[in-house]
Amino acid sequence: MDIRNKANRIRLFSFSTPQMRAFHFSWFAFHICFFGWFGIAPLMAVVRDDLGLTKTQIGNTIIASVAITVIVRLAIGVLCDKIGPRKAYTWLLCLGSLPVMMIGFADSFESFFLARLAIGAIGASFVITQYHTSVMFGPNVVGTANATTAGWGNLGGGTTQILMPLIFAGILMLGVEQTLGWRLAMVVPGIVLFLTGIAYYLFTQDAPNGNFDELRERGELPKAEKEYSMASTFGAAAKDIRVWALFVIYAACFGVELTINNIAAIYFFDTFDLDLATAGMIAGLFGLMNLFARTLGGVFSDLFAKSGGLKGRVRWLFIAMLCEGMALIFFSQMHVLTLAIGIMLVFSLFTQMAEGATFGVVPFVNRRALGAVAGIVGAGGNAGAVAAGFLFRSESLTYQQGLFYLGIAVSIAAFATMLVRFSPQVLAEEDAAYREAAGSSAAPAELSLR
């Protein structure tokens, strides 16, 4: 895909260009998606008592919330190639708002399970976010742009843990019973999701020069049916071993983050005998690290590329992944609350930097099948969360034991970076493109405040 006029700087406080409007709307939309996707997680202690759920049943709903996203992420990347990220995001947000509001009708494990399964489709929003910034920003800042929009979107995992218990408490102050309160609380993110979808359609465009249908009419992009069929894009991506290596890597970083988003509140609630609000606040700290941690992963990816090219990006990805695995192993062994919180923050830092580093590599794997590559790799995150979910549904394993085994798996997955290689021709071409883009900006990976 040959997109012209990509931005070579990130002007954080600018909304005047299509690149920056896509930047801000994509991270905000992804952020709001977390409220729908994981809004119920910090309220699970109440839901558990209301619906009489067992630990195994809770584990099954956790798996359901991320399982369907694997399939939807695979499809949404190809859909972005065909209709553009603007329409794809609008449809996902508006349709996804419906099961979020309807989860309040659940009155049994089965209906609650199906609601969480349907809501999981919202998680495909990540792929659209990464796709949109990948087509809007140049090679010298694309790692930073992807990491920042994804990171600020993932920040929703932290703010959700903090705000949803407060929304729930506010509803209870109106005299509403707990059994109705958690149901009404989920209406709030549903409404916001729908309104965000409408705004995305009205205020963004697919590429710097216009929407995909306009570009195809002008001959600036190939016709969708010729260039972006399922066979030509998904097939090309699926045959590339590097894509599946990144699938495994992303499973071991974003998959871990999704797992922590689902279990953190109830883990601190049960393990350290805390109240619901305090457990939610502590759990929220993990997600709040996205305010800067994932951006750092992208910034370092761009900086490593300055001296080491694409090899430098891959080298940094290995370092971040290995540190994540080690930190998770240490976190699993903590029995003192203050130490557990401290190590959790270190673990969170490397987890999110690894996520940013992963999508600092993705845009360079196959430009002609960018959506398909992003979709497959993004699906890896949810596949990892599904796999990890089985560790936390077992009655025979404690949460701490599950976290320990997960840390070992992450450390092993770091070595999948050895499969991510590029030909000498691609290395030379991307190095030249980086130099050209950086030459017309103030500095590599710059986030300008103007």
From TrEMBL:
PROSITE patterns named in the record: MFS
Domain Major facilitator superfamily (MFS) profile positions: 22-425
Transmembrane segments: 21-46, 58-76, 88-106, 152-174, 180-203, 243-269, 281-304, 316-349, 369-391, 403-422
Taxonomic superkingdom: Bacteria
KW Transmembrane (keyword) present: yes
InterPro entries, sorted: MFS, MFS_dom, MFS_trans_sf, NO3_transporter, NO3_transporter_NarK/NarU-like
Keyword Cell membrane (UniProt): yes
Location(s), subcellular: Cell membrane; Membrane
CDD domains the record matches: MFS_NRT2_like
Topology with respect to the bilayer: Multi-pass membrane protein
Keywords: Cell membrane, Membrane, Nitrate assimilation, Transmembrane, Transmembrane helix, Transport
Family that this chain belongs to: Belongs to the major facilitator superfamily. Nitrate/nitrite porter (TC 2.A.1.8) family.
Name of the featured protein: Nitrate/nitrite transporter
Species per Swiss-Prot/TrEMBL record: Modicisalibacter luteus
